Amino acid sequence: MLRALELAEAAGEVGDVPVGAVIVDGHNQVLAEAANRREQDQDPTAHAEVLALRQAGIQRGNWHLNDCTLYVTLEPCPMCSGALVLSRLGTLVYGADDQKAGAVRSVLNLPDGPASNHKLTVYGGILAESCREQLQAWFRQHRQTR
């Protein structure tokens, strides 16, 4: 999660919402890491989680990520939660809850919902205060500079 926070910081410095993601395999080896790139890429799907899932699939040569863990600084949105389920991710570890768009526990629960064909283990609130503070500080500064 500390590496995900570093990636998030870098995203924030170039104008993207500071969210970072790291995927490790069953041997705790890093397969992929990414940060939000929506503004940089002008791509609404360039969320940290989606970019990391793409990298991990390429790295493995297989989109099934059953034995992998994703660490992400913010609770995934509906798009990302759907991608996590479709990738057959083994475990999700996230930092701050997203009270507006969280689709794992806060607003929706896609992974445990009736439309999910895969159940993943979820641990939320890991380094939540650091993750939340990073996001709040970025949004505060972002509002002031607009």
Automatic annotation (TrEMBL):
Occurrences of domain CMP/dCMP-type deaminase (ranges): 1-105
Top EC class, one word: hydrolase
Note on cofactor: Binds 1 zinc ion per subunit.
Domain of life per record: Bacteria
Residues holding Zn(2+): H47, C77, C80
Keyword Zinc: yes
Reactions catalysed: adenosine(34) in tRNA + H2O + H(+) = inosine(34) in tRNA + NH4(+)
MF-aspect GO terms: tRNA-specific adenosine-34 deaminase activity; zinc ion binding
Gene3D superfamilies documented for this protein: Cytidine Deaminase, domain 2
Keywords: Hydrolase, Metal-binding, tRNA processing, Zinc
Cofactor(s) it depends on: Zn(2+)
InterPro entries per record: APOBEC/CMP_deaminase_Zn-bd, CMP_dCMP_dom, Cytidine_deaminase-like, MafB19-deam, tRNA_aden_deaminase
Enzyme Commission number(s): 3.5.4.33
Keyword Zinc attributed: yes
GO terms under biological process: tRNA wobble adenosine to inosine editing
Active site positions: E49 (proton donor)
Protein family (similarity comment): Belongs to the cytidine and deoxycytidylate deaminase family. ADAT2 subfamily.
Its biological purpose: Catalyzes the deamination of adenosine to inosine at the wobble position 34 of tRNA(Arg2).
Assembly, per entry: Homodimer.
Protein name as annotated: tRNA-specific adenosine deaminase
Protein's organism: Romeriopsis navalis LEGE 11480
